[in-house]
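Lab notes, practical 5.
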Amino acid sequence: MALTLTKSAAERVRSYLVKRGHGVGLRVGVTSTGCNGYSYVINYADEVQDNDVVFEEQGVKVVVDKDSLQLIDGTEVDFVKSGLNEAFSFRNPNVSGECGCGESFSV
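Output from the prediction step:
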């Protein structure tokens, strides 16, 4: 089981961890919501919990709770800039459907 970061995502996480001055890496998870079942949750990880799995990608720790990992195993996290917009994006091979607005997914 694993999650990967693109070079762009890894650079973004590293730069923000330096700006914050603390943190162990990037926390990725899911929550039940939306019209299709789940949505991604992304934040900076300040600590690793007992229920977490930690991956190292391009010098960045990616922290995922075990329950979320079942739904997002194999996902590639990217950081994309488009005009004035910038955001993390996800390529999840487990997704069977997404809502029209792109905010939620089902597996």
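Observations recorded by the TA: The domain at 4-95 is CATH 2.60.300.12 (Hypothetical Protein Aq_1857; Chain: A;). Residues 27 and 43 are 5 Å apart (CA to CA).
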